[in-house]
Amino acid sequence: MRTAILIVAAGRGTRAGGALPKQWQDIAGRPVARWTLEAMSGFGSLAMVIHPEDQARAEAVCVGLDVRLVHGGAERSTSVRNGLEALSGEGFDAVLIHDVARPCVPAETVQAVLDALQTAPAAAPSLAVTDALWTAEDGHVSGTRDRSGLFRAQTPQGFHFDGILAAHRAFAGVAADDVEVARAAGIEVRVTPGSERNIKITTQEDFSRASNMLRGTMDVRTGNGYDVHAFEEGDHVILCGVRIPHNRKLKGHSDADVGMHAVTDALYGALAEGDIGRHFPPSDPQWKGAASEIFLKHAVDLARTRGFGIGNVDLTLICERPKIGPHAAEMTKEMSRIMNLEPDRISIKATTSERLGFTGREEGIAAIATATLVSA
């Protein structure tokens, strides 16, 4: 079946605390929404319903992923309907509707829902209630309830696309979830196995639990890169892809972008893949005068092919001149474009060597970079 994945992320998440809605808060080094998108990305075409005020933040979180963003409404059911309407007419057979606040969903939980949709019009994961149930009044137990046949609902909840779209179009009122909407339309929903890992982040305590789960599956790599290029006659330098007027230029086999070279080597180092020279030998004439963007994109693509995301990059340029500060924002923007990485994960700064050594004598520029890769 051709499947759409609809992530519901338009809520405000106030019970979780913090300055931002919970889906945009960091957990184990990444925003909650990023973890959720990556967990669901292998199962279909991604779409995410967001609050209109969160457009810029959502775009940053989605960098490197193919995600359609749709504006939601005041209620969850309205947001889901908006998402379904945006996807209608595109030939989807099925849709998985998933809460953004469930970033730890196991792949087997998702697959079980998809498998059930082969023979059922709808399916959803759940866990049987195992604790005793009480009622209470004025702070005291007032009675008990039979837990037989009770289940804790989870997501993703899966449906044949046309059926759930029609159900949402016909539904009036507020629904707790999409199973309620489906049942109101007479759609039978099959129960599939849920998972204790598939927690929904609601409170600060949930952030801690989810963080421990996500950190336990990560492979974190750190690499360093160092590069030096001497000056020669010229009228500009290229640093981090930005042309900067100067009374000298940097000498090199390629465009001599010393900053980009250091970052590229840091990525290769984290992957234990040597350096630029291994992948792009200076003895090969095809790389004469080449744009260093080629090298950096290769390192980035290699990391992602190996299953790593880039946690952050920190670059220091060491020179007396040119002054880096006035160009740092443009350099960050260009590196962000090349790497498909959020700008707030890229640090570009400069220092001098207090007139000591070859950089102090303005004979060239040195650069040192550190990159962190994270694999879930």
Residue-averaged pLDDT, rounded? 94
- Estimated radius of gyration: 26 Å
What is the structural class?
A: alpha/beta
Number of distinct beta strands: 19
Beta-strand percentage range: 25-35%
* Uncertain stretches of 5 or more adjacent residues: none
Q: What is the straight-line distance between the termini?
A: 27 Å
**Main sheet makeup:** 8 strands, mixed
Number of helices: 12
Shape, per Cα inertia axes: elongated
Helix fraction, binned, reads: 25-40%
Could you walk me through the main structural features you see in this protein, from its secondary elements to its overall organization?
This protein has twelve helices and 19 strands. The longest helix is centred in the C-terminal third of the chain and has 13 residues. Helix 3 packs across helix 5, helix 5 packs across helix 6 and helix 8 packs parallel to helix 10. Helix content is 30%, strand content 30%. The mean pLDDT is 94. With 376 residues, the chain is of the alpha/beta class. The strands form five sheets. Strands 1, 4, 5, 6, 7, 10, 11 and 12 form an eight-stranded mixed sheet that branches. Strands 16-13-19-17-18 form a five-stranded mixed sheet. Strands 2-3 form a two-stranded antiparallel ribbon.
